[in-house]
Design goal:
The protein is mostly helical. It has helices at residues 2-7, 11-30, 36-53, 63-81, 126-129, 133-144, 148-159, 164-171, 175-201. The protein folds into two domains: 2-81, Rna Polymerase Sigma Factor, Chain: A; 94-201, Winged helix-like DNA-binding domain superfamily/Winged helix DNA-binding domain (Arc Repressor Mutant, subunit A, Orthogonal Bundle).
């Protein structure tokens, strides 16, 4: 068991844990702090706290949830220290644009106002196509280009597999706000992947 190996001081187990979660932790930390460098510091502080707290971990939550909980607390504290005036849950100007471009829908004078004018194209065998290194890199880049709040929520929900209520608790979001942020993040990533598939077919 991973936890037993970690508590026994197994270096390989710790390296595996860091390899699995470091990038995700940094993406979440970045939602609270002003620079990538500070986010990296927060993640390093998190790893030190994990090593220090392993013997006290009571397994009321999964190891992964505990890890992100430590990270969120450290990042919030650092964010307050930086005196950030914009609350994490607020949706700034970068989030104000629609999730799907309006020109994809029929206008008022058309036969079916508000309905798809250009519906999303079905992807042929998307699993196989996303196995290519180029496609995966494009997907990673699309997630990395999201505003920090969207990136954090999408990472926790769709990459790390946390439940909605866990994400709300970790990031101090209401259920409704979490749903809106996740929807916008997914729509933007889908649009980017859609563009990639269209380029591939061109």
């Amino acid at each position: 068991m991973l936890l037993d190996a970690l508590r026994a001081g197994d270096e390989d187990a710790f390296v595996a844990l860091v390899t699995r979660y470091h990038a995700s932790l940094k993406r979440v930390a970045r939602a609270y702090v002003s620079t990538d460098a500070v986010a990296e510091e927060v993640v390093q502080e998190t790893w030190l706290a994990v090593v220090d707290g392993l013997d006290r971990f009571e397994q009321r939550a999964t190891l992964k949830t505990w890890l992100f909980h430590i990270l969120a607390n450290k990042a919030k504290t650092r964010g307050v220290r930086e005196r950030r005036s914009v609350p994490f849950a607020s949706l700034g100007p970068a989030d104000a644009q629609p999730s799907v471009p309006p020109d994809r829908f029929q206008a008022e004078g058309d036969a079916w106002p508000g309905h798809w004018a250009v519906p999303p194209r079905p992807w042929e065998d998307p699993e196989r196509r996303l196995q290519s290194l180029e496609a995966r890199e494009r997907l990673r880049a699309a997630i990395g280009a999201l505003p920090e709040t969207q990136q954090a929520v999408l990472t926790l929900r769709d990459v790390e597999g946390l439940e909605a209520d866990e994400v709300c608790m970790l990031l101090d979001l209401s259920a409704g706000n979490q749903r809106v942020i996740l929807h916008r993040a997914r729509a933007r990533v889908r649009a980017e992947v859609e563009r990639y598939f269209e380029e591939e077919l061109a």
